[in-house]
Specification:
seven-stranded mixed β-sheet; about 20% helix; DUF1826 domain-containing protein; DUF1826
């Protein structure tokens, strides 16, 4: 830790971000000092072309709380509601949402999950913040990924990190159990001009 950082961080702050190429990186969210883990996975080119070409009115939106094993069914219903026909890419999207809900449930030892699919061409959360939840999964399927920065350094562009599109990030929230305080902030990025709406998946543990 530098002298400049010493007045911001304390021994009970969790500020570290760990990255991995496999989903088992999620288990590291419980390590001391870790505020977020990021699964940097490869994106399917065909899926990205499909989701980028989707008319804005056909992008699925969803807000629900379900047992984790019903997450995929909820995503399928959301797709059907906006007229997305069944097919390889839709199955990839809904199957991924189901798999990530299971990952959250196993990692955070919960059976219920809150699921959101947010569609927006505006900045949803423009200010750096910590969510008032134990933890939150974020995955951007379309558009630019979530930005993050250690608390107190949001005015320094060189300290701002960004989750890659399609990567999966799990951030500790303000209600994370234990004595460690979450000292890592995140926000929605500015929209890409001409790229159309952003599609963001949010999954929270419930109970």
């Amino acid at each position: 830790m530098s002298i400049a950082e010493a007045h911001i961080a304390t021994a009970s702050d969790a500020r570290d971000v760990l990255m991995g190429r496999e989903p088992d990186i999620f288990a590291d969210i419980e390590l001391p000092g870790v505020a977020a883990v990021i699964w940097n996975r490869s994106c399917d080119v065909g899926f990205q072309r499909w989701i980028d070409g989707m008319p804005p009115q056909n992008l699925p939106e969803l807000r629900t709380v379900v047992p984790f094993h019903l997450a995929e069914a909820a995503a399928i219903a959301a797709c059907e509601q906006v007229g997305i026909p069944s097919g390889r890419e839709r199955d990839m999207l809904t199957g991924d949402i189901g798999a990530l809900a299971l990952l959250v449930a196993k990692t955070l030892k919960t059976r219920q999950v809150g699921i959101r699919l947010d569609v927006s061409d505006e900045i949803m959360c423009p200010k750096f913040h910590v969510d008032n939840v134990p933890a939150r999964l974020l995955c951007t399927y379309r558009g630019t990924g979530t930005q993050y920065v250690p608390e107190g350094w949001d005015a320094d562009p060189e300290r701002i990190g960004q989750v890659a599109r399609g990567a999966v990030a799990l951030f500790r929230g303000g209600a994370w159990p234990g004595a460690e305080r979450t000292g890592l902030l995140h926000r929605s990025p500015a929209p890409d001009i001409g790229a159309g709406p952003r599609l963001l998946l949010v999954i929270d543990p419930i109970g």
